[in-house]
Records
---
Amino acid sequence: MSGNQIRIFDTTLRDGEQAPGCSMTITEKLRVAKALAELKVDVIEAGFPAASPGDFDSVKAIADQNHGPVICGLARCNPGDIEKVYEAVKSADRHRIHVFVATSAIHREHKLKMAKEEIIKSAVGAIKMARELVDDVEFSPEDASRTELSYLAEVVSAAIEAGATTVNIPDTVGYTVPAEFDRLFRYLKEHVARIDDIVLSVHCHNDLGMAVANSLAAVIAGARQIECTINGIGERAGNCSLEEAVMAIKTRAEFFDVETGIETNRLYPTSRLVSSITGMHTPRNKAIVGENAFAHEAGIHQHGMLQHASTYEIMRPEDVGLSRSNLVLGKHSGRHAFRGRIADLGFELDEFEMNRAFQEFKKLADLKKDIYDGDLEAIIMSADNASSGPWTLKALEVQTHTDQPATAAVTLISEDSKEVVESAHGDGPVAAAFLALEKATGVELVLRNFELHSASIGEDAQGEVTVNVEHEGESYRGRGTSVDIVEAGCRACLEVMNRILRRKKYGRSGPGKPTPEQATI
Ligand code: KIV
Ligand code: ZN
């Protein structure tokens, strides 16, 4: 790689997935990993294998798919964690072990209860062990931005001597500011002897809204790897947003004088995929991928845009994978137009998936006149869930009254064609329908959150519902789509109920490649 090449290390599946409400199933993680490979990220941090058997399985499944990027797993500085990462990532042609230990005084005293020398010893031991297993080892001094500079330089020197090939500097709590972070990187450059022998990396959290700015300051000061997530998802206020950092570097290439290998026209589809899977929808005004990022409302702006797009537009929507055409499909659109639009949106479907999506599209076109991109995305995302029984929703009937409880009746069909009809009363139609579903499936859920999002525009837009529920002390997330929002909620709820029933029948996937059934659990 040339000296002005910035490696993009995506941690959506590790730091991003760690965020509350962002957990993904193995199938979803595999799908995101494939999209990240198509986006051409350099490294995918696929998870923290020692965290749980499920994490181990998903990192291994991603490594087995071997799509091209380096597959990395996170480990604390102990042999058990390091061995687990190695076992999980070794099948990928290119793999990395990422070890970390906290170095700031506050972490040393209150979390680790370890002295400075002990921490260095533990980091050095872990890096040496990892280097015996793989050639590519990354080390992170957690909370680096709040660590005494001279001690941080000592830790980084020891890590390089021990064999780390990448040293990452995290702003773990999103505390630093660009000018200060610039000073930190320049200090390391000056005080760590072999720093030019390794790749210097940056990892920022967004607590003060400066994760992207701090990451870019680090790049100016010499960092050559940015750790980031799609849509900036991550713990608390999130991580550095991949799409923002990448587009800043591309749009201001003359200023930064560096480049990434990212296929920027895959940014928008990848963002939509992650928001649809996690249910974490991006705000309308989110830079690069928000719905309004390229919308010009004010008359004076529209006038300027008509004269010349560059008057008010610093990036072209098509550069991030957003088509200007805003083509609308309808009842009379044929398979050819449908297929073309799906490809424009960045989805790759096999013949079976394409046929099913086309049938769903035709059904939807009977219900609503105009089919927008958001509707097509919703169809494709919900096709994933439709295949996962044992129960399918056949019919739903709800009655609401202003001053009486609502009633709902559901008809479900099981895999072995058994039909069950149940009804219930509730404070509102959603509560009544959920109760009826609980009676029909025998699965009781505690609803923690119900979010409704419009998939496209207009009164007849499809509603996308994401539910967060609990069952026997575990949290689950489900999503469902329909032009009827109560039905969308039922589909979301039934998705979770089906997952729980499958888990009870098949158990959790054990180590190794999941079977197709296990992969959806
Ligand atoms: O924020 C952080 O410090 C991390 C490290 C494990 C890199 O996520
Ligand atoms: Zn982090």
---
Amino acid sequence: MTDIIQLLPDNIANQIAAGEVIQRPASAVKELLENAVDAGATQVRLVINDAGKALVQVTDNGKGMSGTDARMAFERHATSKIRQIEDLFRIKTMGFRGEALASVAAVAQVEMKTRREADELGTYIEIENSAVVRQEACACPVGTTISMKNLFFNVPARRNFLKSNAAELRHIMDEFIRVAMAFPDIFFSLTSNGQEVFHLETGSLKQRIVQILGNNYNAKLVSVQEQTDYMNIHGFVGKPETARKTRGDQYFFVNSRFIKSAYLNHAVNAAFEEMIPKDSFPGYVLFIDLDPSQVDINVHPTKQEIKFEDEKIIYAFVQAAVKHALAQFSIAPSLDFSLNADIQQLDAVSKPFTTDKKDAVASSNLYQAFTQKNQAHFIERTKPDSQEKTELKHWKSFFEAPNPAPEATDKPMTIPGLQARKSGLELIPDTPLLQLHNTYIIASTNSGFILVHQQLAHERILYDRYSVAAHGQQMATQKSLFPVTLELPAADAALLTDLLADLHSIGYQVEPFGNNSFVIQGIPADITPGNEKHAIELLIEQFKHFSNDIKFSRREKLVRCMARQQAIKAGQQLSQKEMLTLVEELFDCGSPNVTPTGSPTYLEFKEDYLDRMFGK
Ligand code: ADP
Ligand code: MG
């Protein structure tokens, strides 16, 4: 018998490793932008064609590479940023794993031009399937241009896995924004299919935030700034009135690296407690800087998750810093008549900020701990350690519980023993309907009674109505008397642009207004006017939850989101007439017994079954 184990050839090993680092065009964008920043560039230009599927190109004016380095850069584990394991805990650069360029070169055709200031001529290099196919001297400006073409040209299975251009472009914008936000003193531009989407001149962090997130943040940012020996925090939180129904504008950076942390996010939200309605999210752009030895950034291949040496301190610090900033802001509340009504009613806004309250904030242990320099480690432990730990864990798991996202399941469309029988079930005329707990409707039928869940039933009705509309028969629109403008972050604006035609077919009249803003000119005739803006924002957010689902067309997703969003909710009191209409409309549906996602809409209790139950 011969032995069977072989070493994989480099190009295959690289392709496998690339799976972790380069999942989509946006991952390459992130790596290339970070390399440009690490190279000390002051100008970074990103060019995208075909949502990065055809081309991702980054040009920087950084320090460039020598001819040998240019070749070396594409080897796996080739990096100039660390030399020994201890260096991992002193990292000041964005990259350090030395695998990004190797991964890119394994799954795309790569061209690079690079020159150092000291060299007269630069290097041109061409790579395919991890092998250098051409290298020559060339004339080029100082810095580096890397072009990545035809991503996954040699891994068709992964190419097919990529999403629509709109979706991939959104991912790219997200990554671009995350890097650009962290370095306001670097110029960044993003050009997609020949059109410049972002042109970010250098300036202050505040200017960068407004450039990226939109003018509606102008004059509505509260500065956060605390310094201790252990860590610093700086950045901005949006004033309470800028809180939105979507989680979009939340950015945390640790040592300039964008990170995702439900835990820290919770710390900020907690600081806003009582100042914003429960279901809305404050915007923030916050930077935490601390000794690199206090964080492990090497727990995730794309480095978006990190581990803190002491999470609790960071949590408390972030919360205290944001609270402090907000307290200062409420001492002099700005009279802003555009304040949203649900916010106005909150105590924190409607009641004057009393001296008592001010004192309470100022005398809290945390506040003192963090406003006195050198005091960060003296956060008083008010509870035994173990108890505190479980509490924190609880916070975490509480927060990580996913929102009930619109869920698409493969559940069968019928429920055992309860077939849709449009003709079979008949309501007994002139019999009053009964509403239970403002959620269930009891209606007598020719063969017993049914228990209808009002929200689920309405979801089915609306789904059918919107589906018909989406497939040709346009829904009626009511023109808005006061058209509402809506300003969105670039990524959301791209998504909404993509949805405009479909929204129109279901009765929304939304028009682009330039600069990522839109005007809502009309809404579906059967929707109560007044919260158009919220409705669209919510729709975008729900749609995003769906965006990974390839089973459904865009239209189908939209229809499902709309039905769910507009359905009467459980807990709402209904009149006799409303109940009757609801039940009748339900039975006009093709499959009245289930929602589009497969939940039952009603349960039927037949007379003979009831008789049997009572032994009759
Ligand atoms: P890492 O960034 O983790 O070191 P990469 O694969 O991204 O690994 O890059 C490998 C090396 O190539 C870097 O360490 C750096 O020395 C060099 N390099 C990559 N991109 C650039 C660039 N835009 N300008 C100058 N040098 C670069
Ligand atoms: Mg890198």
---
Amino acid sequence: MIYNITLIPGDGIGPEVMKAARDVINAAGVKINWEIVDAGEGVIEEYGTPLPDHVIDSIKRNKIAIKGPVTTPVGKGFRSVNVGLRQALNLYANVRPVKTYKGIPSRYDDVDLIIVRENTEDLYAGIEHNVGDSAAESIKIITKKASDRIVEFAFDLAKKQGRKKVTAVHKANIMKLSDGLFLKCAREVAESNKDIEFSDMIVDAMSMRLVQSPEKYDVLVMPNLYGDILSDMAAGLVGGLGVVPGANIGYDMAVFEAVHGSAPDIAGQNIANPTAAILTGVMMLKHLGEFEAAERIDKALSKVLEEGKILTFDLGGNAKTTEFTGEIIKKL
Ligand code: NAI
């Protein structure tokens, strides 16, 4: 099988880390026609926008894309490329696996959880207004459709990945109507998925539990705002943004991207850590059903990290991006 996949190198360190991900995937033997299209700061002069139509068309055609970080131009009035893609492609689920790797400094040893964040509504629906001069209101939207969809997604993901438990995170004790509806939907969906253990937890308690004993959690599903906050917090549990992959998934399309930004401070020096980009590639392979190659890459990367001999500067080493990538390829 040969896959057609859109690859957006992005800005800053994007091209360097995306090349690393591509080289590792190619070396693992998965056959991919990479359709490379540019988006971000670098194309604004040519196209008058950071997200040209042909980039969206390419993803719509191929259904799968992997994307490097793009610099968000400050104060130039362009819509964020990430928000633009999410809306244009209806990418309703944000998925962030958070896992400890030996060799990556962190406070915990055995975290392996997935945060599933609803990507389209909640307080992020953008419905806000001023009330006179002295108050402002943001409306929290929770719908049955989006809640059912995201919780079903979480259960499907749990099953596909052989996971045992889904926890719905909410604040239904206070927001009885909005989060109450989310929780009701979650419980109903759980009823039809009895083979996976289900529980729910209030977001404040969840925050404490995640810091105390993150190893106890498996798949967590939650509305947009809690997902935004807890997913960054969870990244902090395993060594930070440089090592955490992510994906935005829709009905028949998916855009995979690491969590970190374009890191202009280290761009073009061949020193960026490609771990997050490579793990993002691993997520993409699992999505394609290429589990064996995904597993092999994950193992090779784990070995390089664990050996601790060839590491990029952020992990305490002095290897170049290309040396670190080459070492992973050697171990495939
Ligand atoms: P950033 O993640 O680019 O950098 C934060 C710090 O982490 C920097 O010191 C950077 O050198 C370091 N860092 C990040 N990734 C690294 C890696 N792979 N290896 C080694 N060190 C790494 O966040 P920042 O500085 O807030 O944002 C820079 C630009 O990226 C901004 O224009 C922002 O809007 C954009 N951005 C884009 C994202 C995307 O397209 N998905 C996500 C986050 C930020």
